[in-house]
Protein backbone atom coordinates (compact mmCIF):
# COMPACT_ATOMS: atom_id res chain seq x y z
CA UNK A 1 0.00 0.00 0.00
CA UNK A 2 1.34 3.42 -1.00
CA UNK A 3 1.00 5.87 1.90
CA UNK A 4 2.56 8.72 -0.10
CA UNK A 5 -0.27 10.41 -1.95
CA UNK A 6 -1.66 13.61 -3.38
CA UNK A 7 -5.39 14.19 -2.83
CA UNK A 8 -7.20 16.89 -4.80
CA UNK A 9 -9.77 18.63 -2.58
CA UNK A 10 -10.40 21.44 -5.07
CA UNK A 11 -8.84 22.66 -8.29
CA UNK A 12 -10.90 25.54 -9.62
CA UNK A 13 -9.43 28.94 -10.47
CA UNK A 14 -11.31 32.07 -9.52
CA UNK A 15 -14.45 30.61 -7.96
CA UNK A 16 -15.83 27.27 -6.77
CA UNK A 17 -18.64 25.58 -8.67
CA UNK A 18 -20.96 22.62 -8.23
CA UNK A 19 -18.20 20.15 -9.08
CA UNK A 20 -15.22 21.52 -7.21
CA UNK A 21 -13.96 23.89 -4.58
CA UNK A 22 -11.11 26.23 -5.41
CA UNK A 23 -7.48 25.22 -4.94
CA UNK A 24 -6.68 22.84 -2.10
CA UNK A 25 -4.60 19.65 -1.92
CA UNK A 26 -3.55 17.14 0.71
CA UNK A 27 0.03 15.84 0.79
CA UNK A 28 0.30 12.61 2.77
CA UNK A 29 3.45 10.74 3.70
CA UNK A 30 4.62 8.60 6.62
CA UNK A 31 1.54 9.36 8.69
CA UNK A 32 1.69 13.15 8.20
CA UNK A 33 -0.88 15.29 6.39
CA UNK A 34 -0.12 18.75 4.99
CA UNK A 35 -2.67 21.03 3.31
CA UNK A 36 -1.46 23.01 0.29
CA UNK A 37 -3.70 26.03 -0.33
CA UNK A 38 -7.11 26.64 1.22
CA UNK A 39 -9.41 28.29 -1.30
CA UNK A 40 -13.18 28.71 -0.99
CA UNK A 41 -14.89 25.37 -0.35
CA UNK A 42 -11.87 23.60 1.12
CA UNK A 43 -13.10 23.68 4.73
CA UNK A 44 -16.25 21.86 3.64
CA UNK A 45 -14.07 19.21 1.99
CA UNK A 46 -11.92 18.85 5.12
CA UNK A 47 -14.92 18.60 7.44
CA UNK A 48 -16.58 15.99 5.21
CA UNK A 49 -13.46 13.85 5.66
CA UNK A 50 -13.08 14.57 9.39
CA UNK A 51 -9.71 16.23 8.77
CA UNK A 52 -10.24 19.78 10.02
CA UNK A 53 -8.44 18.94 13.29
CA UNK A 54 -6.02 16.38 11.86
CA UNK A 55 -3.68 18.50 9.76
CA UNK A 56 0.02 18.70 10.62
CA UNK A 57 0.71 21.89 8.66
CA UNK A 58 -0.55 24.25 5.97
CA UNK A 59 1.28 25.91 3.07
CA UNK A 60 -0.31 28.81 1.19
CA UNK A 61 1.35 29.33 -2.17
CA UNK A 62 0.07 32.92 -2.34
CA UNK A 63 -2.67 35.16 -1.02
CA UNK A 64 -5.10 35.37 -3.91
CA UNK A 65 -8.59 34.52 -2.70
CA UNK A 66 -9.00 31.28 -4.65
CA UNK A 67 -5.96 29.87 -2.83
CA UNK A 68 -6.46 31.12 0.73
CA UNK A 69 -9.87 32.55 1.67
CA UNK A 70 -10.97 29.43 3.58
CA UNK A 71 -8.04 29.75 5.95
CA UNK A 72 -10.27 32.11 7.97
CA UNK A 73 -13.21 29.69 8.40
CA UNK A 74 -10.65 26.93 9.04
CA UNK A 75 -9.24 28.96 11.93
CA UNK A 76 -12.71 29.51 13.40
CA UNK A 77 -13.59 25.83 12.88
CA UNK A 78 -10.49 24.78 14.79
CA UNK A 79 -10.99 27.29 17.61
CA UNK A 80 -14.75 27.15 18.19
CA UNK A 81 -14.88 23.59 19.43
CA UNK A 82 -15.02 22.03 22.89
CA UNK A 83 -11.34 21.08 22.84
CA UNK A 84 -9.43 23.20 20.29
CA UNK A 85 -6.47 21.39 18.73
CA UNK A 86 -2.93 22.68 19.14
CA UNK A 87 -1.66 25.38 16.80
CA UNK A 88 -0.13 24.08 13.60
CA UNK A 89 2.44 25.78 11.36
CA UNK A 90 1.15 27.83 8.44
CA UNK A 91 3.70 28.94 5.86
CA UNK A 92 3.14 31.87 3.50
CA UNK A 93 5.57 33.63 1.10
CA UNK A 94 7.93 35.79 3.10
CA UNK A 95 6.65 39.13 1.77
CA UNK A 96 3.04 38.21 2.63
CA UNK A 97 3.14 37.69 6.41
CA UNK A 98 2.10 41.31 6.98
CA UNK A 99 -0.90 40.91 4.69
CA UNK A 100 -2.00 37.85 6.63
CA UNK A 101 -1.59 39.75 9.90
CA UNK A 102 -3.78 42.56 8.55
CA UNK A 103 -6.42 40.01 7.54
CA UNK A 104 -6.27 38.60 11.07
CA UNK A 105 -7.10 42.00 12.52
CA UNK A 106 -9.93 42.49 10.03
CA UNK A 107 -11.69 39.18 10.83
CA UNK A 108 -11.07 39.32 14.59
CA UNK A 109 -13.80 39.37 17.20
CA UNK A 110 -12.00 41.54 19.77
CA UNK A 111 -14.57 40.97 22.53
CA UNK A 112 -14.04 37.19 22.39
CA UNK A 113 -10.70 35.97 23.82
CA UNK A 114 -10.86 32.78 21.76
CA UNK A 115 -11.09 34.49 18.37
CA UNK A 116 -9.61 37.90 19.19
CA UNK A 117 -6.84 37.02 16.72
CA UNK A 118 -8.14 33.85 15.05
CA UNK A 119 -5.36 33.23 12.55
CA UNK A 120 -2.52 33.79 15.00
CA UNK A 121 -4.32 31.71 17.65
CA UNK A 122 -5.10 28.76 15.40
CA UNK A 123 -1.85 28.81 13.41
CA UNK A 124 1.85 29.42 13.92
CA UNK A 125 2.38 31.73 10.92
CA UNK A 126 5.85 31.40 9.40
CA UNK A 127 7.56 33.07 6.42
CA UNK A 128 8.38 30.80 3.50
CA UNK A 129 11.72 31.74 1.95
CA UNK A 130 11.47 31.34 -1.82
CA UNK A 131 15.20 31.12 -2.49
CA UNK A 132 15.23 27.59 -3.95
CA UNK A 133 17.74 26.50 -1.29
CA UNK A 134 16.17 26.64 2.17
CA UNK A 135 14.66 23.31 3.21
CA UNK A 136 11.77 23.47 5.67
CA UNK A 137 10.53 20.52 7.73
CA UNK A 138 6.77 21.05 7.40
CA UNK A 139 5.80 17.79 9.15
CA UNK A 140 7.37 14.50 10.19
CA UNK A 141 8.93 12.99 7.07
CA UNK A 142 7.96 15.92 4.80
CA UNK A 143 10.38 18.65 3.77
CA UNK A 144 9.75 21.57 1.44
CA UNK A 145 11.82 23.88 -0.74
CA UNK A 146 10.11 26.95 -2.21
CA UNK A 147 10.97 28.85 -5.38
CA UNK A 148 10.05 32.31 -6.61
CA UNK A 149 7.16 31.99 -9.07
CA UNK A 150 6.10 34.64 -11.59
CA UNK A 151 2.71 36.04 -10.62
CA UNK A 152 0.87 39.26 -9.83
CA UNK A 153 1.56 38.83 -6.09
CA UNK A 154 4.34 36.95 -4.23
CA UNK A 155 3.83 33.31 -5.20
CA UNK A 156 5.76 30.15 -4.35
CA UNK A 157 6.36 27.13 -6.53
CA UNK A 158 6.80 24.18 -4.17
CA UNK A 159 8.96 21.06 -4.13
CA UNK A 160 8.18 18.48 -1.46
CA UNK A 161 10.63 15.72 -0.55
CA UNK A 162 8.68 12.67 0.63
CA UNK A 163 11.29 10.05 1.41
CA UNK A 164 12.74 9.10 -1.98
CA UNK A 165 9.82 10.72 -3.80
CA UNK A 166 9.23 14.26 -4.99
CA UNK A 167 5.95 16.16 -5.43
CA UNK A 168 5.93 19.64 -6.98
CA UNK A 169 3.32 22.40 -7.30
CA UNK A 170 3.53 25.24 -9.79
CA UNK A 171 1.33 27.63 -7.79
CA UNK A 172 0.00 30.39 -10.05
CA UNK A 173 2.86 31.38 -12.32
CA UNK A 174 4.07 32.16 -15.76
CA UNK A 175 6.96 30.20 -17.23
CA UNK A 176 10.05 31.11 -15.19
CA UNK A 177 13.24 29.65 -13.74
CA UNK A 178 11.59 29.14 -10.35
CA UNK A 179 8.78 26.86 -11.46
CA UNK A 180 11.11 24.93 -13.76
CA UNK A 181 13.54 24.32 -10.90
CA UNK A 182 10.74 23.26 -8.55
CA UNK A 183 9.40 20.75 -11.07
CA UNK A 184 12.64 19.32 -12.48
CA UNK A 185 12.64 15.56 -12.07
CA UNK A 186 9.55 15.55 -9.84
CA UNK A 187 7.67 12.27 -9.67
CA UNK A 188 4.34 14.15 -9.69
CA UNK A 189 3.87 17.77 -10.78
CA UNK A 190 0.62 19.66 -10.13
CA UNK A 191 0.53 22.52 -12.60
CA UNK A 192 -1.87 25.32 -13.35
CA UNK A 193 -3.49 25.56 -16.79
CA UNK A 194 -5.57 28.70 -16.34
CA UNK A 195 -6.08 29.58 -19.99
CA UNK A 196 -6.78 27.58 -23.10
CA UNK A 197 -5.56 30.51 -25.20
CA UNK A 198 -4.04 33.82 -24.16
CA UNK A 199 -1.83 36.41 -25.79
CA UNK A 200 1.70 36.84 -24.41
CA UNK A 201 0.88 40.22 -22.87
CA UNK A 202 -1.95 38.71 -20.81
CA UNK A 203 0.24 35.84 -19.65
CA UNK A 204 3.03 38.22 -18.68
CA UNK A 205 0.70 40.65 -16.89
CA UNK A 206 -1.15 38.09 -14.80
CA UNK A 207 1.52 35.39 -14.45
CA UNK A 208 -0.33 32.32 -15.68
CA UNK A 209 0.12 29.46 -18.16
CA UNK A 210 -1.91 28.16 -21.05
CA UNK A 211 -2.70 24.46 -21.15
CA UNK A 212 -0.16 23.93 -23.94
CA UNK A 213 2.55 25.69 -21.93
CA UNK A 214 1.68 23.45 -18.97
CA UNK A 215 2.38 20.37 -21.08
CA UNK A 216 5.57 21.87 -22.49
CA UNK A 217 6.77 22.75 -18.98
CA UNK A 218 6.23 19.15 -17.85
CA UNK A 219 8.39 17.95 -20.74
CA UNK A 220 11.12 20.52 -20.07
CA UNK A 221 11.18 19.55 -16.38
CA UNK A 222 11.22 15.81 -17.07
CA UNK A 223 8.46 15.02 -14.60
CA UNK A 224 7.09 11.55 -14.00
CA UNK A 225 3.42 12.57 -14.08
CA UNK A 226 1.60 15.83 -14.76
CA UNK A 227 -1.63 16.73 -12.94
CA UNK A 228 -3.40 19.54 -14.81
CA UNK A 229 -5.17 21.89 -12.40
CA UNK A 230 -6.35 25.47 -11.73
CA UNK A 231 -9.02 25.34 -14.44
CA UNK A 232 -11.56 28.11 -14.99
CA UNK A 233 -14.45 25.78 -15.83
CA UNK A 234 -15.20 27.11 -19.31
CA UNK A 235 -13.28 24.68 -21.50
CA UNK A 236 -11.86 22.03 -19.17
CA UNK A 237 -11.95 19.18 -21.68
CA UNK A 238 -10.20 21.25 -24.36
CA UNK A 239 -7.60 22.46 -21.87
CA UNK A 240 -6.85 18.94 -20.72
CA UNK A 241 -6.46 17.70 -24.28
CA UNK A 242 -4.19 20.62 -25.16
CA UNK A 243 -1.98 19.91 -22.14
CA UNK A 244 -1.87 16.20 -22.91
CA UNK A 245 -0.94 16.82 -26.55
CA UNK A 246 1.89 19.17 -25.53
CA UNK A 247 3.17 16.79 -22.82
CA UNK A 248 4.21 14.13 -25.32
CA UNK A 249 5.14 10.93 -23.49
CA UNK A 250 4.63 12.37 -20.00
CA UNK A 251 1.55 10.75 -18.40
CA UNK A 252 -1.13 13.38 -17.79
CA UNK A 253 -3.99 13.30 -15.27
CA UNK A 254 -6.83 15.80 -15.14
CA UNK A 255 -7.48 17.16 -11.65
CA UNK A 256 -10.91 16.39 -10.22
CA UNK A 257 -12.37 16.64 -6.75
CA UNK A 258 -11.49 13.58 -4.69
CA UNK A 259 -8.72 12.40 -7.02
CA UNK A 260 -5.99 10.48 -5.17
CA UNK A 261 -2.66 10.18 -6.98
CA UNK A 262 0.00 7.83 -5.58
CA UNK A 263 3.40 9.52 -5.54
CA UNK A 264 5.80 6.84 -6.71
CA UNK A 265 9.56 7.12 -7.08
CA UNK A 266 11.05 7.30 -10.57
CA UNK A 267 11.26 3.85 -12.11
CA UNK A 268 8.48 2.41 -9.95
CA UNK A 269 5.52 0.81 -11.67
CA UNK A 270 2.92 3.40 -12.59
Automatic annotation (TrEMBL):
One of its GO terms (molecular function) is 3'-tRNA processing endoribonuclease activity. InterPro entries: Metallo-B-lactamas, RibonucZ/Hydroxyglut_hydro. Residues 21-208 form the Metallo-beta-lactamase domain. PANTHER family: METALLO-HYDROLASE YHFI-RELATED, ZINC PHOSPHODIESTERASE ELAC PROTEIN 1. This is MBL fold metallo-hydrolase. It comes from Actinoallomurus iriomotensis.
Amino acid sequence: MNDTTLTVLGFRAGRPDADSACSGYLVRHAGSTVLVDCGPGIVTELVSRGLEHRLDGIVLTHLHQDHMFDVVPLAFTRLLTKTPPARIPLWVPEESTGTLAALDEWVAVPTDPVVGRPLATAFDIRPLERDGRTEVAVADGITLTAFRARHAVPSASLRFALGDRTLAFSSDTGWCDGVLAAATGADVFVCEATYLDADPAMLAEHGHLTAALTGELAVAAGVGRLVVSHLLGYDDAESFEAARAAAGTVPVTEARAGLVVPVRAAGAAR
